[in-house]
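# step 3/5: fold
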Amino acid sequence: MPVLVGKRAPSFRAAAVIGTQVEEEFSLDRYLGKRYVLFFFWPSDFSSVCPTELLAFQAKLAEFEERGVAVVGCSTDSVNVHKAWLRTPRSEGGIEGVTYPLVADSTMTISANYDVLAGHFDYSETGEMVFIGAPVAYRGLFLIDRDGIVRHQLVNDRPLGRRISDALRMVDALRHLEEHGETCPADWEADG
């Protein structure tokens, strides 16, 4: 898997659901020079582990925003599937109440560019393009600085959920480095 750390985050324009609205030309470029971005991928809507993560990001959203971080999620599901999932009550496996942008990567190009696609395109014996594997994303997480550079990358297999507080710690470490020029050793935690 290629490492994106230290490189410009792959750019894209895609439809995203933000609250109850669809934005057809959503791009992370809107945050350049203004905010950090925590861009994460999940395998599929209406699954067992994925809503727990999206709801956990929502529960910590104020903490990310206090640190100047925009949280943006992405999966290979369509805008319509995202909208349905957002309308589904939490008690029924939905993510009702999630307010951060959910990007629809139905072409799988964003997942491929971030190298988190759990399969690949190939050609059949007859020369037709076919997809090999599961056309969903691994659980990728990318911390992007205000200049658009990936500073942290983590990719889990689909069954392995993430710990959202770890993402907050990485944001704190990056901010500490930028503000004080000091590195952050293992298990470093922000004061207070």
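# step 4/5: annotate
The beta strands are 14-18, 21-26, 36-41, 69-75, 102-104, 117-123, 129-137, 139-144, 150-156.
# step 5/5: archive (pending)
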